[in-house]
Design a protein that fits this description.
Elements: H1 3-15, H2 19-41, H3 44-60, H4 71-93, H5 118-129, H6 133-145, H7 149-156, H8 160-180
Helix pairs in contact: 1-2, 2-3, 2-4, 2-6, 3-4, 4-7, 5-8, 6-8, 7-8
């Protein structure tokens, strides 16, 4: 059974009122969602709050899930909206703080992303942090969430070619940043 079929089974259980359906989906995707939110906000506490908000919103809006979509894409879409709302609120709330989005990024790694070379991992995280916000978001949705580009375009409310272009630029800029940090030959 593939991941999408397994997700549909868990979703059906959840929709029928069986708590094991929701808890199964939560356990399966919480690290990916948390990793995305952590990298977007750069604040562990804020990421935890946003993750809780994301899954609560999923619980409240179960009827809005399109069964033809991937559950992971849907939950990442909710996390994306919660993050955007957070940054809008932070911008309005703090005049002297400037652009809240400029603070996006973190060196946090979820357990699934653990690499043996800490120095290399740190340099890669720094390169990802240096990306422009929309490039960083496309990169993280694709790399952390394995979200298809068609669904990234829906989440970010842009044409698929724009999402693909942002990913291409993100990869190009990551390569440039890694070269600045002494890592060459990254494809």
């Amino acid at each position: 059974m593939n991941e999408k079929e397994n997700d549909k089974i868990l979703f059906d259980l959840w929709q029928k009122g069986d708590p094991s359906g929701f808890s199964g989906l939560y356990e399966k995707y919480r690290y990916r969602v948390f990793g995305f939110l952590m990298r977007m906000t750069g604040d562990r506490s804020r990421a935890e709050d946003l993750m809780q908000d994301t899954f609560i919103a999923a619980l409240k809006n179960i009827d809005q899930f399109d069964r033809n979509r991937n559950f992971l894409s849907w939950i990442f879409g909710i996390a994306h909206k919660r993050t955007i709302d957070f940054f809008r609120h932070a911008k309005v709330e703090s005049d002297h703080e400037g652009d809240a989005i400029s603070s996006i990024g973190s060196k946090f790694d979820s357990p699934a992303e653990s690499m043996s070379n800490k120095g290399l991992r740190d340099k890669i995280n720094e390169a990802v942090q240096s990306l422009e916000a929309t490039q960083r978001e496309v990169f993280l949705l694709r790399e952390l969430g394995d979200v298809p580009f068609k669904e990234i375009a829906e989440i970010m409310n842009c044409p698929i070619n724009t999402a693909l272009g942002r990913m291409r630029l993100a990869l190009k800029n990551i390569r440039k940043e890694l070269q600045k940090r002494g890592i060459h030959g990254v494809q």
